[in-house]
Amino acid sequence: xxxxxxxxxxxxxxxxxxxxxxxxxxxxxxxxxxxxxxxxxxxxxxxxxxxxxxxxxxxxxxxxxxxxxxxxxxxxxxxxxxxxxxxxxxxxxxxxxxxxxxxxxxxxxxxxxxxxxxxxxxxxxxxxxxxxxxxxxxxxxxxxxxxxxxxxxxxxxxxxxxxxxxxxxxxxxxxxxxxxxxxxxxxxxxxxxxxxxxxxxxxxxxxxxxxxxxxxxxxxxxxxxxxxxxxxxxxxxxxxxxxxxxxxxxxxxxxxxxxxxxxxxxxxxxxxxxxxxxxxxxxxxxxxxxxxxxxxxxxxxxxxxxxxxxxxxxxxxxxxxxxxxxxxxxxxxxxxxxxxxxxxxxxxxxxxxxxxxxxxxxxxxxxxxxxxxxxxxxxxxx
Amino acid sequence: xxxxxxxxxxxxxxxxxxxxxxxxxxxxxxxxxxxxxxxxxxxxxxxxxxxxxxxxxxxxxxxxxxxxxxxxxxxxxxxxxxxxxxxxxxxxxxxxxxxxxxxxxxxxxxxxxxxxxxxxxxxxxxxxxxxxxxxxxxxxxxxxxxxxxxxxxxxxxxxxxxxxxxxxxxxxxxxxxxxxxxxxxxxxxxxxxxxxxxxxxxxxxxxxxxxxxxxxxxxxxxxxxxxxxxxxxxxxxxxxxxxxxxxxxxxxxxxxxxxxxxxxxxxxxxxxxxxxxxxxxxxxxxxxxxxxxxxxxxxxxxxxxxxxxxxxxxxxxxxxxxxxxxxxxxxxxxxxxxxxxxxxxxxxxxxxxxxxxxxxxxxxxxxxxxxxxxxxxxxxxxxxxxxxxxxxxxxxxxxxxxxxxxxxxxxxxxxxx
Lengths: 382, 417
Fold this sequence. Notes:
The complex is a heterodimer of chains A (382) and B (417). By secondary structure, chain A is an alpha+beta fold.
């Protein structure tokens, strides 16, 4: 009997211990995750809640490039609105007039680009997907006199700038009218939507093309075979769902499937805002106006291999959306044609359903701003 | 214990443990962040003050029918004392409540608590009877418990308390208090009192008066123009009126305003000329004595803030000489002297700020305006904040509650029948 009681006690205690271990501790160690709308996200800020006048402390920012994204380049992390605080670095105090001064030669920063940047900025040429970097500054609180002996609640801003790209891949389903009629008569489902896949990033695409796209073997009725090419339009909704906004122009790149016969109609391309090449296009890259778009994309946005892969072939379209025209959400349309040759193949082989994959890329420089308040309390008392 | 019972108990234990654990876990998740905690305290702290200000706002509307008035500010929030941000000091009275007329028998204690954030170097405390018997009491034994260099006892009903640090209290004792019957009779136009009948309406009131200092600080936040326009277009930025932060523990608040903020400022080009509106209000339970001395302190690159239509003296060392004289006259002590030194330091030696002394009297609720020139943001920073401070010296007096005195005469006295 005693043994049974002991066994029961052990069972109770172990049950509680297991339950506490599984549930109680979970909240404290939950990993910070980035949302799919974040290309680079701020996952932690070390806040100084309170400083006394004239004392110093550390502020830090931790950013991570989304594991499900493309990786980011030319990343800049800066403190802003620093006055009346001072940055303590390289053995000196950096006040509001000196924050832009170049870092002394013998004082290296934390990241690979720091030596070219003002003291309030940290920079790196690339953060790979899933990679995390933490930057920090030591700051000194203003003196009692500088805050007029009144408690100060100062918003210390930080901003993160980086170049990023998002890829949206969509399978578009094409269905012959004959197949649609057959399915309808048999009561089968004839409304189908192709699969989509998107990398993480702030600029989100969603397919707005109504699917399936129906084509007819007999269209246009009575015309010669060579005029049987079929014109469509693909629609996408583009939306900024990140926590900031693009500060460069947004370059959109559309790649068509490599299969023969699925192409774009060059005659109406310009009407839809697209270009077949980047030769005559200039961009604002977030720093300066009028840079060569192609150079910017090749050198700063995409990895060399990736760029080569994207622009391989002649089925690529480009479009530059001016950053000043950018609004939170807009639609883009791209002309699509199934050539007469392809239509003949479809008809001759009586192909009822076809699926083609289209890729849209958005390349941009993105800006996130945030702030944390630091309180400086004057000393009161005797 | 049967096996079934044991299993049942085990299941109940498991469910209870799970529930408790989930509760603990979720409670932990709900725990507010430290900064959120401060935010909550701000809301709670100022809720009561704002309720109090509702009345003031109505008064504003009467005194300022055109509605040109600066945005109301907030008291600073500090973890330290004082506990009452909107009062400079409190004064309490207690003591003997029974005394025969024309006999020395009153002993009265007056306690002064400094609720402000600066040391009160000197406070004059006066005891008197309330209306209509004012002037009918005399304390021959009024003496300060504190060593003092000040001249006291010009009238025996006045004594001085010196050096009361923020948050602390000091007490005075007034001894041998006598209420003069002939004075009381004269006040009520009678020739005699009834013997052994208490005289109604006799009460003692203590009045404390001092010179206090306060300051308000306004943050002037600029944002680089292009950045600001982008943020506004993206609905990230909304410009709002911004009020000043008052030093806590002052019965007088000074409101300052430069319009909506952040101010869109270019990187290059001319300064922006912005109007600064200010006015002060007495939100305490006492009365101001005269008008305050006002000093406007602006960052050097903002230019001098000259009150429009009023005379002001800026960046002249005479301001500080004058300030020191005032400091000595009113025995304001080290706190104000430190401020004087600071203002002289930043304006004449470090040359980081302009200090302007408003020469003319500015009455409560008067809206004073001046202009400041806000320069472009010349660094790569996208935001930049500077501060404008107004410092004030003001005389202030506050009365205690009444101490009812039970007093009468006896038939062996003259004029007592």
